[in-house]
Fold these 4 entries.
Entry 1:
Amino acid sequence: MANIAVQRIKREFKEVLKSEETSKNQIKVDLVDENFTELRGEIAGPPDTPYEGGRYQLEIKIPETYPFNPPKVRFITKIWHPNISSVTGAICLDILKDQWAAAMTLRTVLLSLQALLAAAEPDDPQDAVVANQYKQNPEMFKQTARLWAHVYAGALFYSFKTSKNQIKVDLVDENFTELRGEIAGPPDTPYEGGRYQLEIKIPEIYPFNPPKIQFITKIWHPNISSITGAICLDILKDQWAAAMTLRMVLLSLQALLAAAEPDDPQDAVVANQCKQNPEMFKQTARLWAHVYAGAPVSSPEYTKKIENLCAMGFDRNAVIVALSSKSWDVETATELLLSN
């Protein structure tokens, strides 16, 4: 490397090390090549963005003609951003191209990249797929960018949990084909105090087809199978639209717990009980919320019947299902258990 480039990059390297941003752990630079031809940069995801909490590694190559030509910079850490390739990490930023000036420094570059994370320019994209999602479905873009920040950049969690609605989602498969959702039982319902786990599978043709979702946590609800966790909800079927998001789905499922539709059931036994004996339905749903979803203790009477049949050697889950489906009549529930 030409002597002028070496002297310049050494000075800028020290400038970054002594900078206020480095002391605050916002930017960082390390030497890779003792000839100062390659550096390793790092920037923190800006606050109040999907990248917050993430740490983004950068490959920085210094040309012999530096500082008259810009450094060659790309993201090593994968990131979901309109101006950065989700595949190669290539960056679309004017100061790394025709707007470069010899007076600019490494610190200028790192701070400009951090600013780019906070203010994307989707009309001048590096990644057309990301830019299209950014413009057409901003909420989905934010969720996806946050997920990538969690998986690849070490953000503490991927979640769109809110204290009000108490919903969240976590990654299961790093290929983004499976997620684990969770919703809180709504207040003033039999499900209050419970936490309900959901299996979420993302099809290849998402968002044009809905995600496939089922309850992992057992639940007593007319529109959810008490056996398989399958769900009867229109937006997961023919009423799905590509503009819908995972957040909308989870909120809709939470709303379903608060407003069952027994005339369009997934579980006919539960739906019949809901219509014929609403009070028994509430007590049964409350007991299931306690046993399976961690809600506070419910009916002592129902709990005693469960314990009595379990003492006879029957499986606990089978006992709960039998009593629930037989209106808590011990005799007919016992007959059902024996027949199975």
Entry 2:
Amino acid sequence: APEPVDAEGMELTDPSEMENHVVLAGYGRVGHAVARILTGEEVEILVLDRDPDKVHQAREDGLKAYVGDAARTEILELTGLARAVQFIVTVDDTNRARDMVRCARALHSDIEIFARAHDGDHATRLVEAGAGHVVPEAVESGLQMAGMSLECFGYDTETVRDLLARVRDEEYRQA
């Protein structure tokens, strides 16, 4: 069978080649902040986004990134989600985020799922869909998700706090 390809015609990485990685759904401002911190700590990430321009940007940033809908079972299976340690949803569309969480939870009952929420009601819906960690909006959500992710990898709280403070300062200077 031919290798699966995305909208730009690039072959997806064989999922059997990836394990203990993070699948990141969305590469906007929040997704970029998460990826920047995790890759800086040598966490392997696979990015999914429906926008070819964002996928192109992620690839320019040195990431494995593919055009795809993270709310579709067959797409998440191609990411090697079954062997991933975390699924992080950073998209701002509330219904799509819920659908992504639900789909990932159905495929991998034990995976750590982090999701960006707009408000309390949205956070409740994400938890009900299967998210274990729900984070508030904007750049702070990217910083907090990355910090929680690093703590799940065994980083101590002080190291994470110092790293996030440094990156937060850099992010706000660029804003």
Entry 3:
Amino acid sequence: MPYWTAPEFIANGKYSPAMDIWSLGIVSIEMVEKQPPYFDKDPHTARELIAGGGTPTLKDWQAFPWELIGFLSSCLVGNEFKRATASELCLHEFLANACSTMTLVLLLDLELQRSFELTLPSKQMIAR
């Protein structure tokens, strides 16, 4: 599936650490929108859009904080040599203003509990 693939991998098939930064940007969009960019397109079309230099963005980008938009813009630079590094992203305002690790752990725990409860059969189904 090409949806998370960096443009340079589509072009030359060789791995570089910059590809992980691209994928981080795509996964970040997926976390917000529940699917990666171009997911509504068939894989071939998505591959062409990515390879053609189209920079993926949030569908309703104006609804999000500018720190997130800037973070995504740093991750999703088409030219791998101009794309931010992991060290640079660690200093980005979006991450600097993020919640503490403990808060994140608690939020993830709550979400896991909620997801687990949604997958359990209802008491009525068990009684049958």
Entry 4:
Amino acid sequence: MCYTYARATIGVSYAPTAYYADRLCERGRSYLRGYLSPEPASQHYKAYVATKTQITNQQAGVLALKLAGMPSPPKLPGRNASRKSAAQIQVEMKHEKDVEELVGQQIRNEAAQAFAQYRHSGPGPWSAKLDETMFWM
């Protein structure tokens, strides 16, 4: 156990570097929470839904082209429509993952732009002199 932490009043059972790295990660998660896991009533959630709808609509044609090139399974007696084949289901699942990745990429870009306003020059909200060094919070 170690008792050298600035914020801990009791013994902590892991190394100081891991402790402070964990604290910094938690701080980062709290800053990004509005983008990565927004509340349904928030502006970030509304932007997420709008972005997802826009990308889904844009990619609908791509999915239709992929499915059009696949043979359709025969209709079963007594059914109005044929069931999807395993290949069609696989294509749709991959398409959904691709859309989610595009949405995630868009949201990450929005978060990066929002935090970039605090940076005067370089890759973080700290002085440019600290860019190539390791420092503690």
